[in-house]
Amino acid sequence: MLVFCISLYRSNYVGVLYLKGELFVLEKIYIMEMETESITRGSEVGVGDCGSGVKFRSNVHMEEGIEDVDDAGSCALDMDVSNEIAVVVEEPKEGMVFQSWQDVEAYYKDYAEQMGFGVTRAQGVNSKMGDKKKIKVTWKCECWGKPDMRARREAKKRAKAMGLGGSNGLIDGVVCEDELSGMKRTSKKCECQTRVYAKVNEDSLWELKSVELKHNHGIDPANSKLVKEYRMKQMTSGFKKRLIDFYEQGVPISQIHGFMATERKGNMTLTVKDSQHEVYKARRLKMVGRNSVVMMEYFEKMQTENQNFFHAQRLDEEGRLKDVLWVDARSRVAFEDFGDAVCFDTTYLTNEYELLFANFVGVNHHGQSLLLGCALVSHEDCDTFAWIFRQWLACMNNRAPKAILTDQAAAMRRPFAEVMSNTVHRWCIWHIMNKIPEKLGKCVRYQEFVNPLKELVYESFDPEEFQTRWAEFIA
Hints:
The structure is a single chain. This protein is of the alpha+beta class. It folds into 5 domains: 1-88, no CATH class; 149-181, no CATH class; 235-284; 291-432, Nucleotidyltransferase, domain 5 (2-Layer Sandwich), CATH 3.30.420; 444-474, no CATH class. The chain contains 16 helices and 22 strands. A 7-stranded mixed sheet has the order 16-17-20-19-18-21-22, sandwiched between helices. Strands 6-9-15-14-11-10 form a 6-stranded antiparallel sheet, covered by helices on one side. A 3-stranded antiparallel sheet has the order 1-2-3, with no helix packed on it. A hairpin with a 2-residue loop joins β12 and β13. The N and C termini lie far apart (85 Å).
């Protein structure tokens, strides 16, 4: 005899299942009240396990409740020889009510994983009130959109950034043929219309207002292992710790992955690439051994010897070194005289800890480069760059340069506008010209026009001359 339990939103059922011949027979179902608010499984808030492998949710309920006890039997319980009961997540229906949009997303992803397709949060609307909370969200199948959607988006970004269209971009709002032909892989996008739309109702609960379940492509539950988000559920804290411990002892990631797959008897959807990504991410945020301690001790020693030495660092949630900036006394003095124009460069190679090295560089009256500050950067995002710029300005007595040159990283634009609003931000011409072979190298007449193109860029001394020569060059 096998006792199991099922929770269908507000109602909880306990059933008695026994083996009769070669068939499982459901003899009785009892309804019982259970307190589930405090039960959690893993990192999913509000998701618990009743002991039989049956998942249930404490914060999801139908607006009208469960109509019939027979509904419990409508859940297709798949059983193998080991008598394990697999849960079937009920398909979305209009009128379902949830406590928050996160609950809607978690529920829909559980359903999608069961069916074998990925989910993306495609659209959202925030309240215009002070809290700016989400009030409407649409989730779609990952195959939504046109096959060339990525190419169109990238082309529009480049056209907007450069202020013009052209080869490898947009011409009169249309994506160039060479942009589409340059796609490196076949897109999974096929304009699938599967989606769920939810919004906040008058009771401040999230209600499914529109549900479309029909796909225009084949789906298979076995394909859930192709979605990284679903695979990463196996990347538990214990698994991650063992993975990193083995790696730091010198075991190759491929061997670690093979060992753990054998240990789980092949029941592991995580790939070698997933494990590599997790290891590299951990090393990027953690300087192994005493290296970070030695560096900070050196900075303290430098500051003791010279009070004008400046350094700042910040840690992540787990207390690991994340970003660090330092400026020596000579650089601070040099900035007073030669800080009108500065170049911020992040193109240096990363080190063994996957931390990017960035520096501030100026030029003195002899045309010599001056180092005006250095940083180790964990992520190239707006938050990190904003922190770097604020700390550097604080070191320089909040005197911003008149002009600064950077590469074309989009993550720098907003931090510059916020931190150095009066500084003229220009893109480094070296970075721009360095992209010519990459973007135009496949053109048939590339060798004919590459040198004239460089001449008009480097030998034009004002905007008017450049525009005139550019028009002649294009003609």
